[in-house]
Automatic annotation (TrEMBL):
Superkingdom field: Eukaryota
Gene: Slc50a1
PANTHER family referenced in this protein's UniProt entry, alphabetically: RAG1-ACTIVATING PROTEIN 1, SUGAR TRANSPORTER SWEET1
Biological source species: Heliornis fulica
Transmembrane segments: 40-63, 70-88, 100-119
The protein's name: Sugar transporter SWEET1
Any GO molecular function: sugar transmembrane transporter activity
Compartments reported by the entry: Cell membrane; Golgi apparatus membrane
Keyword Cell membrane appears in the UniProt entry: yes
Membrane topology recorded in Swiss-Prot or TrEMBL: Multi-pass membrane protein
Length: 160
């Protein structure tokens, strides 16, 4: 719905990029975790998710009048992700799996918390206009699905 709104209004007004940036980093991190653990469900889902999130961010950049802050946030999150990956290359396989799992869990939590960045604005204006209801529902359903999958796979990091 946010993408549809951007395309129809040719504007990013009332649309936040932070949830989509964190989701993209989250997808890329879980993609790495899936590759490391050879879990094809993680690989396929997160490869598709990363591609879609990247397209969303490119559309946001196209319609955004202030491109520098968006690019800076994007680069900062990618540097954090790359730093995490590079740091994990210097340790053994088991430690790498645990470290990347923890890294992914932290990003997942930040992704779910990112819409709260507008909490002060929501309280001040007494309006939830800047929150996407479809995104909220989808996030709830996705998190529930991943929790069930993590329990099934006996993988604490996915469960978190």
């Amino acid at each position: 719905s946010d993408l549809r709104q951007m395309l129809s209004t040719k504007s990013v007004e009332n649309i936040q990029v932070l949830p989509f940036l964190t989701t993209n980093v989250n997808n890329l991190a879980w993609l790495g975790y899936g590759c490391l653990n050879e879990k094809w469900t993680l690989i396929v889902v997160n490869a598709i998710g990363a591609a879609l999130q990247t397209l969303y961010i490119l559309a946001y950049l196209y319609y955004s009048p202030a491109k520098s802050p968006v690019l800076l946030r994007t680069l900062l999150l990618l540097v954090v992700l790359a730093t995490g990956y590079v740091t994990l290359l210097s340790v053994d396989q088991q430690t790498r799996k645990a470290g990347l799992g923890l890294f992914c869990s932290v990003f997942t939590i930040s992704m779910y918390l990112s819409p709260l960045a507008d909490l002060a604005k929501i309280i001040r204006t007494k309006s939830t206009r800047c929150l996407s209801f479809p995104l909220t529902v989808t996030t709830f359903l996705a998190s529930t699905s991943w929790t069930c999958y993590g329990l099934q796979q006996d993988d604490l990091y996915i469960t978190v």
